[in-house]
Amino acid sequence: MQRISLIGCGLMGGSLGLSLLEHDPDLRIIGWDAADTLEVALRRHAITHAAPSLEAAVQESDLVILATPLHTAIALIEEMAPLLSPGTWVHDLCSVKQPVAAATERFLPRHTWIGGHPMTGSEKAGIRHADAALYENATYVLCPPAGDVDAARYATFQSLLQSTGARLLEMSPRKHDRVAARVSHLPQMLSVLLVNLAAQSRQQDPEVLRLAAGGFRDMTRIASSPFRMWSDILDGNREEAQAALETFAGLLSELSAELRAGSMDAIGDRFRLAEQTRNFIPADSKGFLKPLADVFVFTPDRPGALVELTSTLFQADLSIKDIELLRIREQTGGTFRLGFDTASEAGLAVDALQSAGFTAYRL
């Protein structure tokens, strides 16, 4: 698969292109997107060629990768159906799989479709934030091709994706959407509702957000995700998302009844089951929800202290993913919470900051 069409060169598509070309510079990746996006993608070497049209992008390609929102991908599948050469394979990165499967079955019956969902991302969007390491250690769901396919070619395709550092997991479109609704879509909706509840509570208790750090902040970090992205996902997976909400509502009702009755033993069983089950969640790979590793650092109240802190981490080649000023005392200093991608990076940050004279620690 030496000629690849990358349709959509934003964060996900651009990061994929960067990683693929980093591992195999001989690949030919033809990108198609807005002109300004393609200009940046070329400059960053996320693609090797920019196509002026969809037809020019997909003609004679071995593999077409759709790195676009769900509804855009479905529209493109119909549009490019008469443009594809015989034998071209189609792969998509959409977060919902059944609607894409239905579209390819309808419009591309003679082409091999392999659904995909790399479980990684960033709070920032666009080609300028693309990162060749974005897919490293990410679980990457693959929906295996239906029917008889060239086994050697499929193995080559898998190796191509594995070169990014992703961990492949095969799953049917229906199973993917059912699982995603429970561990991605439901947490997103609950996170939004928790913040909505806090917003409503401010009318009676204006101090509520001042106390909403710690666990509340961790549980609601994803509440700031843009609705323009989630609108597509929730609309495309309405049935499974609704089923997940109804199942959760049942559990919530049971817990409410137990609390009302003072059944602490039953509630304790729920806590113990949650603790035991959570221990099975892999700690060394990215998933639907990626927590941050926190470092707490005291910064003295003097000019340039914060610049010194950030410069220390920059010199140590460490990237801060989240920063929050927890408290400040005039003429004394303040305590910051810094979020890092991994526990390893957080440990390195503590070492670097302590070496520079800061008081830094992890809980």
**Major sheet characteristics:** 8 strands, mixed
State the CATH superfamily name of the largest domain: NAD(P)-binding Rossmann-like Domain
- What is the name of the CATH topology of the largest domain? Rossmann fold
What is the architecture of the largest domain at the second tier of CATH?
Answer: 3-Layer(aba) Sandwich
Helix share bin: 40-55%
End-to-end Cα distance, whole Å, is: 48 Å
Low-pLDDT residue spans: none
State the shape. Answer: globular
CATH class identity of the largest domain: Alpha Beta
Read across the widest sheet, the strand sequence of neighbours is: 3-2-1-4-5-6-7-8
* Overall pLDDT: 90
Characterize the structure shown.
By secondary structure, the protein is an alpha/beta fold. It folds into 3 domains: 3-171, Rossmann fold (3-Layer(aba) Sandwich), CATH 3.40.50; 176-278, 6-phosphogluconate dehydrogenase C-terminal fold (Orthogonal Bundle), CATH 1.10.3660; 293-361, ACT domain (Alpha-Beta Plaits, 2-Layer Sandwich), CATH 3.30.70.260. It is 46% helix and 17% strand. It has 13 helices and 12 strands. The chain has helices spanning 11-23, 35-43, 54-58, 70-80, 98-107, 151-162, 173-201, 215-219, 227-236, 238-260, 264-278, 305-315, 343-355, and strands spanning 3-7, 28-32, 49-50, 63-66, 89-92, 112-118, 139-143, 167-170, 293-300, 322-329, 333-340, 359-361. The strands form 2 sheets. Strands 3-2-1-4-5-6-7-8 form an 8-stranded mixed beta sheet, with helices on both faces. Helix 2 links the parallel strand 2 and strand 3. Helix 4 (70-80) packs parallel to helix 5 (98-107) and helix 7 packs across helix 10.
